[in-house]
Amino acid sequence: MPNWDEGPSEHPPSLVSNEEEFSEEEEDSEIDEEIDEEDLRALNEQLDQLNTALDKLERFNDSIHGQLKDLLQENRETLRLLQEEAASKTMELN
């Protein structure tokens, strides 16, 4: 901390520049807050859109999964019927 009793120093204190710096910092802070709010709003909107798209994909995936399960069940039933038919033909031939 400078000793003001010793006389002038190389860098005298300047209250005006400190006030100007504070004012500029306030303005910069306000601009940053505005930008941040705008960026956050835009980001939030993008996240909402992504969430909607992911929900659609999830429903589509669930639908495909259900269809595949049904197809698998039908194929198992068809295979079982074919095996029974083949077994009965084998018995008839013996």
UniProtKB/TrEMBL annotation:
Region (Disordered) location: 1-36
UniProt feature coiled coil, ranges: none
Species name: Lepeophtheirus salmonis (Salmon louse)
Pfam families noted in UniProt: UPF0184 (PF03670)
Biased composition (Acidic residues): 18-36
InterPro entries per record: BBLN_eukaryota
Transmembrane segments: none
PANTHER family, per database record: BUBLIN COILED-COIL PROTEIN, UPF0184 PROTEIN C9ORF16
Protein name, entry field: UPF0184 protein C9orf16 homolog [Nasonia vitripennis]
